[in-house]
Amino acid sequence: MNNKHKILKDIFGHEYFRSFQEEVVDSIIQKKDVLTILPTGGGKSLCYQLPTLLMDGVTVVISPLIALMQDQIKALNDLNIKAEMISSSQTNDENSFTMQKLLEGKLKFIYVAPERFTSNEFVGVLQRININYFVIDEAHCVSAWGHEFRAEYRNLDKLKRFFPDTCIAAFTATATKKVEADIASSLKLNDAKHFRAKTHRNNLDIKVEPRITNGRKQILNFLKTHKGLCGIIYTFTRKEAESTAQFLCENGYSSKAYHAGLNPSIKDEVYDDFVYEKIDIVVATIAFGMGIDKSNIRFVIHTSLPKTLENYYQEIGRAGRDGDMSYVYLLYSKADEVKRKIQIEDAIDTGYKQTGLDKLEAMYRYCVSNNCRHKIIASYFEDEIDDCKTLCDNCTKGEIEQVDVSVDAQKFLSAVYRSEQRFGTNHIIDILRGSKNQKLLEFGHDRLNVYGLGSDKSKNEWIAIADKLIDIKAVNLGEFRVLKISGLGMQILKGKEKLLIDSDKLGIAQKFEEENT
Ligand code: ADP
């Protein structure tokens, strides 16, 4: 048995390397720059921890979150490996003490946030010690095309300027090819080896459904059919996290809320209760989960539409890290998309705005699509995989009765056409339902002959029809989400092609409408 296999077994306690781990470890040992894209749970930490144990110096790990650093350091210390951090959560004295240990060569790992590299003192210390290599965790934060861009990560181009001979190992769970290229060029990686796992978690069973009212009945049904399992429920707001946790307790499920507004001791308690299985369910905002050290999470539920497919993929990736079958369930509504849009419009600088809106659109399209869920996710990350056939609701639902909505589709397309293909879905639905909306009246759209022609259908039924037209690309979304009719759309408009829709899609839209009125 060679050294690396011995370390894998004796120190980390694993029999075999998982896919890509050995190749990444070898490249790091050979002092090559590497960029590794492995899904959550793929075992990235081991890739950069193991080679250090075959080297004399210290490995510098750059990580965006103190909580992540703490988890990693604890895990390493538990293995009797000396790891510490320098961070704003420690006093100046503590940080100086750690720097001293670094200079004395007493540490194997030092964890720091990217902003540390703005300190000349820190860079000066690094220049005086023997660095094995730099690790950049959550490397997608480097790229403005990614979903969590952080300006401090941009400055990491300094690494190659100050340490031209030290190799860099960058890791992320989520990067499109564009983001991957951007990471490599921003960090000035030198002829880096790229490792990219397929974006496919074949132990996740995916289900997506429109949310009916607040989704609680749906959640209870899910929990009834997945009895005794432990999992995370992600909510949109802190308040919703609290009230849902309470609701679940009242219904006999042991659960607690977790969000950024809780004080640290409560957060630690919830985390420990979950990890040590005193409770089954944590109801959380997205604050929970990064770096969570629990490999047997059996389900992840989202009670509303996530911001991006990157976020979603990362969050569902927390289920089933041990490789056993796990279940993910997403509840969404059109209203979530509207809320998220407002968030993006309000919060983010204009450079990111369009990217943010496009990412949100892709997330919503994922929800309303009829295609294999695994395949949509993979193709979003520019991977090609076959339909999963057995692991998502779209592949397993079998024959669903189809309703012919061709005449409604013609009405819809006609309204798009007559309003000169300059408006979005909501405006078109307003025309069809004969709304007295101010904007509509200002444009004189109450005088169009399609005005009020669709008042027999609910708003949600129209949304279901519009979603289907977008899904099959009968209409395309232009700038500002304006609808443009495609060649296929013209065929439908002229009655030369039919539009069929799954009866359950319309059915759920109707039910949603009834329960909301
Ligand atoms: P990531 O950072 O890619 O999300 P982690 O590094 O946290 O994943 O690893 C996920 C889980 O897989 C951890 O519980 C880890 O101990 C385990 N693991 C990593 N490598 C192996 C391996 N070769 N064999 C078995 N388990 C492994």
UniProtKB/TrEMBL annotation:
Highest taxon listed in the record's lineage: Bacteria
Enzyme Commission numbers on file: 5.6.2.4
GO cellular component: chromosome; cytoplasm
A GO molecular-function annotation: four-way junction helicase activity
TM region positions: none
Cofactor(s) required, per the database record: Zn(2+); Mg(2+)
GO biological process, one term: DNA repair
Record keywords, A-Z: ATP-binding, DNA damage, DNA recombination, DNA repair, DNA-binding, Helicase, Hydrolase, Isomerase, Metal-binding, Nucleotide-binding, Zinc
Domain (Helicase ATP-binding): residue spans on this chain: 25-193
Catalytic reaction(s) noted: Couples ATP hydrolysis with the unwinding of duplex DNA by translocating in the 3'-5' direction
Domain Helicase C-terminal residue range list: 215-364
Similarity annotation: Belongs to the helicase family. RecQ subfamily.
Protein name stated in the entry: DNA helicase RecQ
Organism: Malaciobacter marinus
Gene: recQ
